[in-house]
């Protein structure tokens, strides 16, 4: 498998609503190659999540894995790897939680984003089986961020205050932003 170029904000593919997979398509060899390329791309970039549109494939697929070795999110607890096809999000608790989000398609920047703190996601796994998962805290934000990529949205669209957008290297110099609030 081969790591792919990650599209950056401004590329129109990142603004498209991605199309659904058919069940048989999920099981195809093409999709296995796509998934392998996505995991390689994510690992090389040192990120914790990647959506297919970020490598130019406008389809409803995202992968997420919190690694304890992530350079971008050193405080994150490790998670299992998630492969999410055709997700549908329901909000369980609309109380908001905020994190400093970053995005591999918006390199070098972070912005403060508040999102619902507890959600449910119905989706198909890599075996085209229906799954449902309830998420809260950091993972709830990570999933909402990644799944936004499937509807043409970026975290900058979710920022309440554009004034919180900042460069990572400036952020590193500041004390008032705690590392535990930083999400990649
Ligand atoms: Ni992103």
Total helices: the number is 5
Strand content: 25-35%
Describe the largest sheet.
6 strands, antiparallel
CATH architecture: Alpha-Beta Complex
Cα Rg: 16 Å
Instruction: Please report the distance between the alpha carbons of the first and last residues.
Output: 24 Å
How many domains, in number, for the residues? 1
Give the % helix.
10-25%
- Which outline best applies? globular
Distinct compounds present: nickel (II) ion
Please identify which CATH superfamily we are dealing with. Peptide deformylase
What is the residue-mean pLDDT, rounded to a whole number?
93
Q: What name does the CATH topology carry?
A: Peptide Deformylase
Number of strands: 6
Order of helices and strands: HHEEEEEHHEH
Low-confidence stretches: none
Briefly note the structural class of the backbone. alpha+beta
CATH class: Alpha Beta
In words, what does this structure look like?
The chain is of the alpha+beta class and 184 residues long. It has one domain: Alpha-Beta Complex (Peptide Deformylase). Helices cover 22% and strands 28% of the residues. The protein has helices at 23-26, 29-45, 137-148, 155-158, 168-171, and strands at residues 49-51, 61-64, 82-101, 109-124, 130-136, 166-167. Strands 1, 2, 3, 4, 5 and 6 form a six-stranded antiparallel β-sheet that branches. A hairpin with a 5-residue loop joins strand 4 and strand 5. The longest helix is centred in the first third of the chain and has 17 residues, at 29-45. The chain is globular. The model has no long low-confidence stretch (mean pLDDT 93). Nickel (II) ion binds next to loops.
């Amino acid at each position: 498998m081969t790591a792919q170029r990650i599209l950056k904000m401004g590329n129109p593919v990142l603004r498209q609503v991605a199309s659904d997979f058919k069940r048989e398509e999920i099981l195809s060899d093409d999709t296995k190659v796509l998934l392998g390329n996505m995991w390689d791309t994510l690992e090389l970039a040192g990120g914790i999540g990647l959506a297919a549109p970020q490598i130019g494939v406008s389809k409803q697929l995202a992968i997420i894995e919190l690694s304890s070795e992530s350079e971008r999110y050193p405080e994150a607890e490790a998670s299992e790897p998630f492969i999410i096809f055709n997700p549908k999000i329901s909000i369980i608790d609309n109380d908001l939680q905020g994190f400093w989000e970053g995005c591999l398609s918006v390199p070098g920047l972070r912005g403060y984003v508040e999102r619902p703190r507890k959600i449910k996601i119905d989706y198909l796994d890599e075996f085209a089986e229906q799954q449902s998962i309830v998420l809260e805290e950091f993972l709830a934000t990570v999933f909402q961020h990644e799944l936004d990529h499937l509807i043409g949205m970026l975290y900058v669209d979710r920022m309440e205050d554009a004034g919180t957008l900042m460069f990572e290297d400036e952020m590193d110099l500041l004390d008032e932003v705690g590392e535990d609030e930083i999400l990649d």
